[in-house]
Each structure stands twice: as C-alpha cells, then as structure tokens.
Design brief:
Number of helices: 3
Largest sheet: 6 strands, mixed
Number of domains: 1
Low-confidence stretches: none
Radius of gyration: 13 Å
C-alpha cells in the first residue's frame, strides 16, 4: 500500500510496529545487518518512496515531528541507482547518533 504522505505512513506503519514491539530500535526488530525488505511506501515530491525495514525509529520520529510542526525535514540525496531521503541538518543534529539509520529510496 502506498500512503499519500510520510505522516500517513508513520501513523499507519511505524505507530503499529511500535505498539506491538515497544522495545525495538528498528522497524524489523533486528540489531544489525541491512534489509531491503519494504515497510511501506509514501508519496513525496511527486515520487513514490520505499522505507526499508532496517530503518530506525529515531530518525523516522524526528522527521514525523518536523512535519507535525509544518516543516519539511527531508533533503533528497542522489545515489548511484536513484535517490534517498536524509534528514536536513537541523533535524540530523537532534538525532542521538551521526549515522544515517533512515533508509528511504526511490528509483
């Protein structure tokens, strides 16, 4: 299912996973390793973006809070195969780690 925006994705998918597994740090519950499995999709800037299951809750929550404040917390970054979303610097500073930990892509 593709959600109309990030806030709808967060409210539908992220909140549900947190409700079932409040101790998880990542959407998939794992501690290490990558995952190309999809948690879901949302539309942003005219494109459909896929959130990977190895994304951590913290940067997703920070992005959600940004949208709740009426701001856009994302920056589109070019990758070898397409584009990814990263947190804008003012939101990245809020995160407890310098690692990306948010894996959202479009191809």
């Amino acid at each position: 299912m593709t959600h109309p925006d990030f806030v709808a994705f967060y409210n539908s998918i992220v909140i549900a996973i947190l409700g079932q597994h409040p101790g998880y740090k990542r959407l998939d519950g794992k501690v290490t390793g990558g995952s190309r499995d999809s948690a879901g999709q949302f539309e942003y800037c005219g494109k459909f973006w896929t959130v990977h299951m190895d994304s951590h809750f913290e940067p997703l929550r920070i992005a959600f809070d940004g949208f709740q404040q009426g701001k856009d917390p994302f920056i589109v970054k070019e990758t070898k195969k397409g584009q990814s979303l990263i947190l804008a610097p003012e939101y990245k500073r809020i995160q407890s780690t310098k690692r990306k930990y948010m894996y959202i892509y479009t191809w």
